[in-house]
Structure formats: C-alpha cells, structure tokens
Amino acid sequence: MTDETLFTKIINGAIPCDTVYEDEHTFAFRDINPGAPVHVLVVPKKPIARLTDAEPADAELLGRLLLTANKVAQMEGIAESGFRCVVNTNQDAGQTVWHLHVHVLGGRALQWPPG
Ligand code: AMP
C-alpha cells in the first residue's frame, strides 16, 4: 500500500507521461484525455490534495503554479490567442485526482460558462 498520488508517480517517472515542463517545484504534462488541442496539467511536486487543503505557507507555491501555467501557454503558442486555467476542486467540480493540479486549456475558442 502506498499513499503516493497518481501524479506523484508520474512526477517520479513510475508512470509514463508526455512531459512539457519541469522545475524544482512544479511539473507539467499533457492530459491523457485532452479537452482541447492544448491540454496540459500543471502540478506542484508537493502533493497537496486539493485547493481547499492549501495553507498560507503554500502561497509561494500557488504562485509558482500560475507562473508555470503561463510558461506552458507561452511554450505551446497559446498565450496570445488565449487559454484557460482551471482548478477543479471536490465533487461538484468533478475533481478525480487528489493531487492539486491546474488544467491549462487552449488552442480553440472555449465556451463560457463551462457546462
Ligand atoms: P480532474 O478531473 O480535475 O481531477 O482532472 C484529472 C485529469 O487527470 C483528467 O483530465 C484526466 O484526463 C487526467 N489524467 C488522469 N490520469 C492521467 C495520466 N495517467 N496521464 C495524464 N493525465 C491523466
């Protein structure tokens, strides 16, 4: 039995992924079931389960997640056309993986509000 999250296994290389970007604190990889031409997940290496578990001490890390999302958007060529960052949190939002992640979606016109 392990308490490693799915995304920790991806970060550690135990589960393969299509890596887009990595630095000391964050990791970005393509979503296995993309909802847009560009769909990248940005995760903290520290396994915070969900946004509601983030604490004031995580403020810098939360900022780093958005900076990495911006970097990914630049790298993927969607920064100027536009992109969306989504943090699904708990049941009603449809969170399925209990390791905080920012979806970075773009490459087409996105509908608002989402369904
Ligand atoms: P959420 O529903 O916000 O928790 O998002 C979890 C996301 O993780 C979904 O969009 C899944 O498609 C994605 N996902 C699940 N397993 C993998 C995997 N092995 N590699 C890449 N993305 C994954």
Give a short synopsis of this structure.
The chain has 115 residues and is an alpha+beta fold. Helix content is 21%, strand content 22%. The protein has a single domain (6-86, 100-106), classed as HIT-like (HIT family, subunit A, 2-Layer Sandwich).
Structure description:
The chain is an alpha+beta fold. The chain has two helices and five strands; from the N terminus they run H-E-E-E-H-E-E. The chain has a single domain (6-86, 100-106), classed as HIT family, subunit A. 21% of the residues lie in helices and 22% in strands. The mean pLDDT is 97. The protein binds adenosine monophosphate. Adenosine monophosphate is lined by residues 6, 15, 17, 31-33, 41, 88, 94-97.
Strand order across the largest sheet: 1-2-3-5-4
**Rg for CA atoms:** 14 Å
* Alpha-beta classification: alpha+beta
- In the CATH hierarchy, what is the class? Alpha Beta
Amino- and carboxy-terminal Cα gap:
36 Å
Number of strands: 5
Number of domains: 1
Shape: globular
Enter the CATH topology name.
Answer: HIT family, subunit A
CATH architecture: 2-Layer Sandwich
Provide the low-confidence segments as ranges.
Answer: none
Fourth-level CATH superfamily: HIT-like
Bound molecules: adenosine monophosphate
Give helix and strand order, one letter per element, not per position. Answer: HEEEHEE
| Mean pLDDT reading | 97
Q: Proportion of β residues?
A: 15-25%
Described by strand count, sense and barrel closure, the largest sheet is:
5 strands, antiparallel
Number of helices: 2
Oligomer: single chain
Q: Determine the fraction of residues in helical runs and give it as a percent range.
A: 10-25%
